[in-house]
C-alpha cells in the first residue's frame, strides 16, 4: 500500500479527480441509505408490523456500523483505499440480492438480514471516505469539502424514495382498499405477497450497478493518503498519548455524533410514516423524505458558501444544534390539523406537484436544514490532533452511526405508547448534547 499523498503535495488534477470519485460514492451512500424512508411504511404494510417493529429497518441497517467499523478499519489497512471501497460495493450488492428470497417468502427477518449486509458494505465505504475527504485538503476547509459530498449524498436521498415509491407503491390506495375488502387471511396473504415481490426488480438492478461500479473503481485514479503520517494541528500533542482513550474531545465527539445520527435518521426515515399517521395519503407522503433531504442540501450550500470565510466550523455546529431544538419543539407543539400548501417538483418525473402538508411535518423536514452542517463540522473537530490514531478514531466515529439504529427504535416505542407527534421529544435532548459539544466538549483535546 503506497501513500503518495504523504510524500508529495497532491496535484490539482488529482485533487479534483479524487473528490469527483468520492462524490459519486457519497451519492451511492445516500441512495441506498435513504431508501429506508419508503421501506419502513412499505414493510409495515407488507409484513403487517407495528410502528416499533417497522423501525427495526433502521436498526438492522445502522447496527452494522457498530459491528463492522473497527473490522473495516483493519480491512482498509490491508487493502488500501481503492480495493476496500470495491469490496464495500460488492458487499452492498450481496445485501441487495438478499431482498429476492426475502420478498418471495415475505420474511421480515430476511429483509433485515439484507439491510444489515448492505449496512456492512456501507460501513467499509464510510470508514474509508470520510477521513479521506477530511485530510485530502486543508483541515480548516474540511467542513466545506464534506458539505460538497453531502450535496451528492442528500440529492440521491431526495430522489431515491420517490423512485422506489413510484414502482412499489404506485397504486397503494387501491391496494389498501383491496386489503380492507379481503374476506379471509388467505386472500389477504396473496395481496401482501404480491406487494412484497415488487421490490425484487429494483434491488436486482441495484446489485448489478453496485457490482459494475466496484470493477470500474479498480481503474479510477485515487491517490492514497497516509493518515499515520498526519501530524496534529499543534505541536506533537499525540506523541505522549498511549491510547485512543486519552483524547476526551474524540470520546465526547463520538457520543455527540451518536445522538446526532439518531436524530438525522429520525428526521429522514420517520417523516413519511408520520405524515401517514396524520391522514396524509401516500401519494403526497412519499415526497416528505425528499423535503428533508432538500433542507439538508440547502444547509450544505450555506456551508460551502460561508465556511471558513465567514462562518467557522464551530459556530456552524452551534447554530445547527440550536435550530435542531427549535424545529423539534415546532414539530411537537404545532397542532396536527394546521396545514400549508406548497409547490413541489417531482425530482424523478420533473412534474409540478402541489403538496398539502401539516406544518408539524414541515418542521420535521426543516430538521434537515438543522442537520446539514453537524456531520461536516464534527469530523474535523473530533479528528483534530490525533496523528497516528486517526484511522482508529475514524472507525470510532463511524461506529457512532449506530445512533441511527437505536434512537428510531425509541421513537417507534414512544409513537406506539403515546403518539407519532409526541415521539419527537427524543430529538430535544439529542440536539442539546450536540450543543454541549460545540460549546465545550471539542475544547478538551489539549487536556
Topology (SSEs and partners):
Elements (H helix, E strand, L loop, with lengths): L3 H4 L4 H22 L2 H11 L4 H4 L1 H24 L1 H25 L2 H28 L6 H27 L3 H10 L3 H12 L3 H18 L30 H22 L1 H7 L4 H4 L2 H19 L6 H21 L5 E7 L6 E7 H13 L2 H10 L6 H10 L3 H15 L9 H13 L8
Antiparallel strand pairs: 1-2
Helix pairs in contact: 2-7, 2-8, 3-8, 3-10, 5-6, 5-7, 5-19, 5-20, 6-7, 6-11, 7-8, 7-19, 8-15, 8-18, 12-17, 12-18, 12-19, 12-20, 12-21, 15-17, 16-17, 16-18, 16-21
Give your account of this protein's structure.
- With 447 residues, the protein is mostly helical.
- It has a single domain (12-218, 245-446), classed as MFS general substrate transporter like domains (Growth Hormone, Chain: A, Up-down Bundle), CATH 1.20.1250.20.
- The protein has 21 helices and two strands.
- The protein has helices at residues 4-7, 12-33, 36-46, 51-54, 56-79, 81-105, 108-135, 142-168, 172-181, 185-196, 200-217, 248-269, 271-277, 282-285, 288-306, 313-333, 359-371, 374-383, 390-399, 403-417, 427-439; strands at 339-345, 352-358.
- A two-stranded antiparallel ribbon has the order 1-2.
- Helix 2 (12-33) packs parallel to helix 8 (142-168), helix 8 crosses helix 18 (374-383) and helix 12 runs antiparallel to helix 21 (427-439).
- It is globular.
Amino acid at each position: 500500500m503506497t501513500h503518495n499523498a504523504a510524500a508529495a503535495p497532491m496535484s490539482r488534477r488529482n485533487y479534483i479527480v479524487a473528490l469527483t470519485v468520492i462524490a459519486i460514492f457519497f451519492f451511492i451512500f445516500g441512495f441506498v441509505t435513504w431508501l429506508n424512508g419508503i421501506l419502513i411504511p412499505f414493510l409495515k404494510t407488507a409484513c403487517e408490523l407495528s410502528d416499533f417493529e417497522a423501525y427495526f429497518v433502521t436498526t438492522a441497517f445502522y447496527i452494522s456500523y457498530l459491528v463492522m467499523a473497527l473490522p473495516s478499519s483493519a480491512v482498509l489497512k490491508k487493502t488500501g483505499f481503492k480495493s476496500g471501497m470495491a469490496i464495500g460495493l460488492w458487499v452492498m450488492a450481496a445485501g441487495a440480492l438478499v431482498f429476492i428470497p426475502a420478498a418471495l417468502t415475505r420474511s421480515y427477518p430476511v429483509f433485515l438480514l439484507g439491510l444489515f449486509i448492505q449496512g456492512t458494505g456501507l460501513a467499509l465505504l464510510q470508514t474509508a471516505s470520510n477521513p479521506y475527504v477530511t485530510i485530502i485538503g486543508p483541515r480548516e476547509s474540511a467542513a466545506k469539502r464534506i458539505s460538497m459530498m453531502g450535496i451528492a449524498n442528500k440529492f440521491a436521498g431526495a430522489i431515491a424514495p420517490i423512485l422506489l415509491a413510484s414502482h412499489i407503491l404506485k397504486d397503494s390506495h387501491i391496494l389498501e382498499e383491496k386489503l380492507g375488502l379481503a374476506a379471509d387471511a388467505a386472500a389477504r396473504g396473496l395481496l401482501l405477497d404480491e406487494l412484497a415481490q415488487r421490490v425484487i426488480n429494483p434491488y436486482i438492478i441495484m446489485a448489478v450497478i453496485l457490482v459494475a461500479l466496484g470493477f470500474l473503481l479498480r481503474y479510477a485514479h485515487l491517490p492514497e493518503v497516509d493518515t499515520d503520517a498526519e501530524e496534529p494541528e499543534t505541536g506533537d500533542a499525540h506523541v505522549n498519548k498511549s491510547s485512543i482513550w486519552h483524547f476526551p474531545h474524540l470520546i465526547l465527539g463520538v457520543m455527540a455524533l451518536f445522538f446526532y445520527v439518531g436524530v438525522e435518521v429520525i428526521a429522514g426515515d420517520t417523516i413519511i410514516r408520520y405524515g401517514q399517521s396524520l391522514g396524509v395519503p401516500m401519494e403526497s407522503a412519499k415526497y416528505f423524505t425528499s423535503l428533508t433531504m432538500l433542507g439538508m442540501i440547502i444547509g450544505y450550500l450555506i456551508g460551502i458558501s460561508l465556511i471558513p470565510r465567514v462562518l467557522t466550523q464551530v459556530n456552524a455546529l452551534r447554530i445547527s444544534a440550536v435550530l435542531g431544538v427549535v424545529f423539534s419543539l415546532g414539530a411537537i407543539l404545532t397542532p396536527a390539523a394546521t396545514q400549508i400548501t406548497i409547490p413541489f417538483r417531482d425530482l424523478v418525473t420533473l412534474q409540478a406537484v402541489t403538496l398539502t402538508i401539516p406544518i408539524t411535518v414541515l418542521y420535521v423536514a426543516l430538521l434537515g436544514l438543522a442537520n446539514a452542517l453537524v456531520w461536516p463540522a464534527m469530523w474535523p473537530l473530533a479528528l483534530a490532533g490525533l496523528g497516528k490514531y486517526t484511522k482508529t478514531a475514524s472507525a470510532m466515529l463511524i461506529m457512532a452511526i449506530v445512533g441511527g439504529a437505536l434512537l428510531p427504535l425509541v421513537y417507534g416505542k414512544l409513537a406506539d405508547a403515546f403518539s407519532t407527534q409526541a415521539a419527537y421529544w427524543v430529538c430535544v435532548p439529542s440536539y442539546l448534547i450536540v450543543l454541549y459539544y460545540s460549546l465545550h466538549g471539542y475544547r478538551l483535546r489539549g487536556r
